Amino acid sequence: MKKCILFGVLAVASALASAQSTQKPGHAAIASAHKLATEAGFEALAQGGNAFDAAVAVAAALSVVEPQSSGIGGGGLFLLHQASDSKDIMIDARETAPAAVDAKQYLDAKGDLDQDKSWNGPSAAAIPGEVAGLVWIAQHYGKLPLSKSLAPAMRIAREGFQPDARFLDAISERSEVIKRYPASAALYLDHGVAPRTGWTFVNPDIARTLELIAAQGNDGFYRGQFAQRLVDGINAAGGNWSLKDLSDYQAKEREPLAFDYRGWHIVTAPPPSSGGIVLAEMLNILGGYDLAKVDRAHRIHLIVESMRRGYRDRAAYLGDPDFVQMPIAELTSPLYAAGLRASIHPDKATPSDLLPGYLNAAERPHTTHFSIIDADGNLVAATQTVNLSLGDALVVPGTGFVMNDEMDDFALKAGTPNAFGLVGNEANAPKAGRRPLSSMTPTFVIGADRIGVIGTPGGSRIITMVLEGILAFIDGELPAQIVANPRYHHQYLPDVVSAESGAFSKDEVKALEAMGHKVNESSHPWGFMNVVSWDRKSGKLYAGSDSRRASGSGVVK
Ligand code: DON
Questions:
Q1: Whose CA is closest to atom 6 on ligand 1?
Q2: pLDDT band at 421 (very low <50, low <70, confident <90, very high)
Q3: Ligand 1 pocket test, candidate residues 420, 438, 465, 522, most atoms within 8 A of CB
Q4: What does pTM read for this prediction?
Q5: If residue 55 lies in a helix (H) or strand (E), which one and from where to where?
Q6: 518-532 pLDDT, tens per residue?
Q7: Atom 1 in ligand 1: which residue has the minimum CA distance?
Q8: Predicted confidence (pLDDT) per residue in 174-206, tens digit
Q9: pLDDT value of residue 64
Q10: What pLDDT digit, counting tens, does each position of 25-84 carry?
């Protein structure tokens, strides 16, 4: 059925990647979702740390200043490039399902998915991976002890800071669930109500938790008294965790997914993220077109058709690589992409198959991404999350952080959409010890003269935002422009091209509709992209933090 026609030439660029180690930028760039987190990263560098120590410092500081998006109660995917030996590594600090997980517990009496159980409170929480990831990075790649790289986060937590509007909005949006749990209310509410601008947020509990981690590493969190406190807190609220769930948790080192696109080398997240595979499928399809030579409406059409096909395979095949066999080599093969490309009509939308009952994917503006280049050319692209706003909103007394609600990233009921409208099947079913399928897509884009470090939050839209960011970087745009560009998205189901306002002109919307696309403009801004880049010809570094979000901070120094 599929004609395997190879269009264009896929240039092999891995030679470029090795050239990279011979040169150093001499200074550093960090872009993150918060000024205090970016400063924490530079503080680690000033102490003699490298990009990996800076990543630990930024990640821990974000736990304190942006807890609605990520934190030590959640997890993350950390893509590292070590310049000394040109090694690329992904640290998988994704959460895991507790052993007592039971898919039926997420269904109501009618057998429908009960989102209160997958979004809020103890049943929503998977075993956190963030701490194990940070400890691993510090011990294997950093130069500083954790007591130094965690110090800025501890100091900010003790001294306090004034939360920005995004943080305050998140508390207000989640206040009903926060009120269910006394320790959550004590931490995030001001005399029982959602705090307002001017409120100072002090969190000595998280400072003590970080101190334990600094002193004892994983043992300070996953074993002993602290682990007992977590298990007791989750179970007292109605959950079912054991000490073994915590002591069994391991961050994993995985080989990143790497492929070439029109002379550029892309290094990105492998499973348990779907991001890299879907990105490879989309770029392999697009590699057969010269996008610069088609008008904008047709460029959008081709990109949307590549998205539709990538997300269809996401729903069908992907899950935790330690549990599920996936046809990764096939899905990422240029020959497979050529077959998919042959199925794209040059100017007609392919209708997506309809699956029963889907939701429109709503943006839930949480999760966070940061990007770092240090003076030696080490790179970090890190996306970390507690999933939805303030995770499951449950703070275990005395700990200072919310647990994630990552159980919702599993296909809790096959074919029923999750919070991001994503569907899945057995490959992503909730099973003891499994990691839920992610969309987080921390990515390096390596060319002969320019290197980009890119990523964003945005749920199901992460992968398409990263795709558009990569294409803009390859077209020569700088980080400040890339992060500001309006975005569009298609995820197979629902069969709609959604777009930020300003992404398409009126004429482009007409042209897309004439091709059979349904276009839906969103009134809300998407994502929170943070990009850094290095132009090796000029020696310049650049940093861009999403101009949609006031707290973001991209700094070169
Ligand atoms: O891992 C994932 O794909 C999701 N937990 C990410 C959630 C997210 O980006 C929410 N933010 N908009």
A1: 459
A2: confident
A3: 420
A4: 0.94
A5: helix 51-65
A6: 999 988 899 999 999
A7: 438
A8: 999 999 999 999 999 999 999 999 999 999 999
A9: 98
A10: 999 999 999 999 999 999 999 999 999 999 999 999 999 999 999 999 999 999 999 999
Q: How far is the CA of 367 from the centre of ligand 1 (A)?
A: 6
Gap from CA of 329 to ligand 1 centroid (Å): 25
Q: How many CA atoms lie within 13 A of 39 on its CB side?
A: 10
- pLDDT over 50 at 378, yes or no: yes
Nearest CA owner, ligand 1 atom 2:
438
Q: Which residue has the tokens 């949609």?
A: 548
Q: Coil, strand or helix: which one is 543?
A: strand
367 is known as an active-site residue: yes
- Is 475 buried (19+), middle (13-18) or exposed (0-12) by CB count in 10 A? exposed
Nearest atom in ligand 1 to the alpha carbon of residue 388 is 10
Position in ligand 1 atom list of the atom nearest CA 408? 5
Q: How many whole angstroms separate alpha carbon 116 and alpha carbon 183?
A: 19
- In a 3-state reduction of DSSP, which class is residue 159? helix
Mean of per-residue pLDDT scores for the chain:
93
Centre of ligand 1 to C-alpha 256, Å, is 19
Catalytic position from the list 96, 367, 368, 383: 367
Q: Is the CB of 68 under 6 A from ligand 1?
A: no
The one-letter amino acid at 20? Q
Cα 178 from Cα 189, distance rounded (Å): 8
d(CA 272, CA 436): 7
Is 66's C-beta closer than 6 angstroms to any atom of ligand 1? Answer: no
Residue of 148, 129, 128 lying closest to 138 (CA atoms): 148
The single-letter DSSP state of residue 232 is H
pLDDT tens readout for residues 265-302: 999 999 999 999 999 999 999 999 999 999 999 999 99
DSSP H helices in 318-461: 328-331, 334-342
Using a 6 Å cutoff on CB, does residue 418 contact ligand 1? Answer: no
Residue 11 — very low, low, confident or very high, per pLDDT cuts 50/70/90? very low
Dist. CA 295 → ligand 1 center (Å):
33
Is pLDDT of 370 > 70?
A: yes
Contact 365, 522 (CB under 8 A): no
Query: Hey, what are 38's tokens?
Result: 């970016």
**What is the domain partition of the chain in residue ranges?**
34-75+100-252+391-428
Q: 341: CA distance to ligand 1 center in Å? A: 29
Alpha helices in 265-327 (DSSP H): 275-286, 296-317
